[in-house]
Specification:
Layout: H1 8-59, E1 77-81, E2 86-89, E3 93-97, E4 138-146, E5 149-162, E6 166-175, H2 177-229, H3 244-293, H4 300-324, E7 332-335, H5 336-344, E8 350-354, E9 358-361, H6 363-380, E10 385-392, E11 395-402, H7 428-431, H8 436-446, E12 450-455, E13 461-468
Parallel strand pairs: 8-10
Antiparallel strand pairs: 1-2, 1-6, 3-4, 4-5, 5-6, 7-9, 10-11, 11-13, 12-13
Helix pairs in contact: 1-2, 3-4, 4-8, 5-6, 6-8
């Protein structure tokens, strides 16, 4: 059960059903209340009409036994005088509640001498003149038993001022059986129809969500297969739609493509690193083995050179690994002009023309970028290497130019790839492992900048490092 309701399909179905159920209950309650109010209002109107008919006859001085509203109708009517005595009532009225009195047997009228209505007028209600009927009607709910049948009624109470009997109050009732019947019928229909409607809503929601989520299950199963097989060349199916699921599938495939490219890059990196490390290690081992067998043949300078190469290569690989792991650069303020002069010091044929330009980042990593660019320019320059530092808008620009043969336009992006050496005939001793420019660009990107290659005015290569100025 927990697994069932843990699915999106089940939760969507349950949520939709609950929302519709709440809406139906609210709407049904409103309908029942409105229906009951309308029917009670209609019963009140009928009761008021009957009360006014009797009041009109009383105002016309009709005797109690001549009132038409008391004879031949199945509606309770009571006439009460201003002393609260029942003076007239419907025939066959056996019991009544909800009116001014529960009496059902009229009492004899007071003798004429006891009628003091003219001497002590009633100030409790409206001021009426003889023969006038009050405008205000009071409504109550009650019950009455007529000829053995008991029902609920809506009673209307209406006052009338008579010239011979003083102020009288007429209570007339209209049955609420229609209201009760209509409400019961509506409630029965709702109790039967609402569950059926909720079942239809649940079934439709279940089918619609299942159809909508079918591509998601396809994506999930394919991702599980890719995980099990470790085949990153596979892709999830993309629905031929333009909805969120199609975008999810496309994003998933883009992620798989990026992951495949990253894994492939890592494989090439490991293979190239192993290849690059094999040469100095093999050379160093050979020299040590020869030295062990023939100490007089020890090439100490060669061993030191191979050790230095191995140390530099290991440092480069370690820095690339840290950059690939997302190592954040420091937030120190670095003056590129001072850094350029510092890195150029001691190098033959290097001139520096720099204006102060401060950036934020790692002084060590930025120094490594300048050192790599100067090493690369020094290997290819004929006589001269020029370093310039300037401010350009909101960026600092460091340009390193040489007067060598330059870089062909087709190779100006490829040289930033790892382990790439354009001159295949150049030895590793002279050209390094091909990691310097790759490291320089990675550091530039980590610092929010760019590193590009172009043509120098002297015909050689021009490398431009652009970094945001420190705020």
């Amino acid at each position: 059960m927990s697994r069932l309701f843990g699915s999106v399909r089940a939760r969507a179905t349950l949520g939709a059903t609950l929302v519709v159920a709440v809406a139906l209950v609210a709407a049904g309650t409103a309908v029942l209340l409105s229906l009951r109010s309308n029917l009670i209002g209609e019963a009140g109107t009928q009761a008021e009409r009957a009360a006014r008919a009797v009041a009109s006859e009383l105002a016309a001085r009709t005797p109690y036994d001549g009132l038409s509203g008391l004879d031949g109708e199945d509606r309770p009517v009571q006439v009460v005088d201003e002393d609260g005595r029942l003076v007239a009532a419907s025939e066959d009225l056996e019991r009544v509640t909800g009116t001014a009195t529960t009496d059902v047997t009229p009492q004899p009228p007071k003798p004429d001498g006891d009628d003091d209505s003219g001497d002590d007028p009633d100030d409790s209600g409206e001021s009426l003149v003889p023969g006038e009927i009050a405008d205000e009607t009071t409504f109550t709910n009650g019950s009455a038993t007529i000829d053995g049948d008991t029902e609920d009624y809506r009673f209307a109470a209406l006052e009338v001022e008579t010239s011979d009997r003083g102020r009288l109050t007429v209570h007339a009732g209209a049955p609420l059986a229609a209201e009760h019947g209509a409400v019961r019928t509506a409630l029965t229909v709702m109790l039967i129809g609402f569950p059926l409607l909720l079942a239809v809503v649940a079934a439709v929601t279940w089918l619609v969500t299942g159809r909508a989520l079918r591509p998601v299950e396809g994506i999930r199963s394919e991702m599980a297969a890719i995980t099990a097989s470790e085949d990153l060349a596979r892709r999830v199916p993309e629905p031929a739609t333009h909805d969120e699921i199609a975008r999810l599938a496309r994003t998933t495939n883009e992620t798989l493509a990026a992951l495949e490219a990253s894994v492939e890059r890592q494989r090439r990196f490991v293979a190239d690193a192993s290849h690059e490390l094999r040469s100095p290690i093999a050379s160093l081992r050979t020299q040590l083995e020869v030295a062990a067998a023939h100490p007089e043949l020890l090439d100490l300078d060669g061993a030191v050179e191979d050790t230095v190469r191995l140390q530099r290569l290991a440092a480069d690989l370690l820095l690339l690994a840290r950059l690939d792991a997302g190592e954040r650069s420091a937030d120190a303020r670095v003056d590129l002009a001072a850094l350029a002069r510092e890195e150029a010091a001691g190098r033959t044929g290097v001139t520096v023309d720099a204006e102060p330009a401060e950036v934020t980042g790692s002084r060590g990593q930025l120094g490594r970028v300048l050192a790599n660019l100067l090493d690369n320019a020094g290997r290819h320059a004929r006589e001269r290497v020029t370093v310039t530092v300037r401010r350009e808008g909101g960026r600092a620009v460091v340009a390193v130019a040489d007067d060598g043969d330059g870089v062909a336009e087709a190779d100006r992006e490829r040289i930033f790839q790892r382990f790439v050496r354009l001159d295949a005939a150049r030895s590793r001793d002279d050209g390094g492992a091909g990691l310097g420019l790759a490291i320089a660009r990675d550091v530039a990107v980590r610092h929010g900048g760019t590193l590009t290659a172009g043509a120098a005015p002297t015909g050689g290569a021009l490398f431009e490092l652009r970094l945001p100025l420190a705020r």
